[in-house]
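Example record

One chain of 329 residues, shown exactly as stored in the release files.
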Amino acid sequence: MLPFKLVYSDRYYLPIGEHVFPAEKFRHIHDRLLMSGVAEAADFLEPTPAEDRDILRVHTSEYVYKLQNGTLSAREELQMEIPYSYELVDAFWLAAGGSMLAADCALRDGISLNIGGGFHHAFPDHGEGFCMIHDVAVAIRRMQADKKIQRAMTIDCDVHQGNGTAFVFAPKRTVPGETASRTAVTIPSLGTMTISDIPPKDVFTISLHQENNYPHWKPPSSIDVNLLDHCKDEDYLSWLDKAVSAGLSQFQPDLICYIAGADAYREDQLGGLDLTIQGLKRRDEYVFQTAREKKIPVMVAYAGGYARNVEDTVTIHANTVIAAKEVYS
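Predicted structure tokens for this chain:
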């Protein structure tokens, strides 16, 4: 058995029809882990849906009402970029329950992975970018409400900036066009790291993402690494080390929430970075090794992955479990 738990349900499947988001990837990851012998059935826990009161710790009552009663406007559904259904609402409530369970297990075992979740583009009052509910934010707020943690850090390695995360946890809310107070570190031809001059309240947010990619408006995270197109493994890992080291030098979290997107892969349809499958595994290893050395529990959620060959996405996500097994065994 693994020395940690994996959270998964067949009901993670998103009923969205033909779509660039491979809704079947969660089941494929689960099956790959079992068939390859990386995990066994006893390593998996089945989540229950989040309760409304947990969703409401992050999302507005008006938005939750619209979701539960099917009254989103055409514009709101278009902004979410996935077709609304009651079944889809159930899947997102379940994903939030999965991230809460994974966070709880991480505090006990040192690490836990939700084989799903990571819907980091959801805002308190609307969904964006295939994301209806911000499961990671819900998990953090539930752990804080239960007084299991006081402070959390998000490390977001999806190719797209975690705009919902940055907005939800911002110590000072910004609007498009507003200039935030930030310190910038620029390496020509590689990218820029910006660090907020406003101390975080109780959640420190880090995002490494392709600068010239979705979303158009990127609310400021505590640290944003704006990577130029075609960033490769070594440069990416160097930026990751800089960002995480800078974050941990000024903020001591009780829990790290790692959003391990697979879409920084060089064959991704919605990305423009040039990371290899092995480079992405080294990324995961770095996060896990750093967290273990610092004795900080880690909850993992999976977020995006849109490789031209869906099996590549499955391999990248399965490798995250393998990396955790190697570091924590």
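Notes: The chain has one domain: 5-328.
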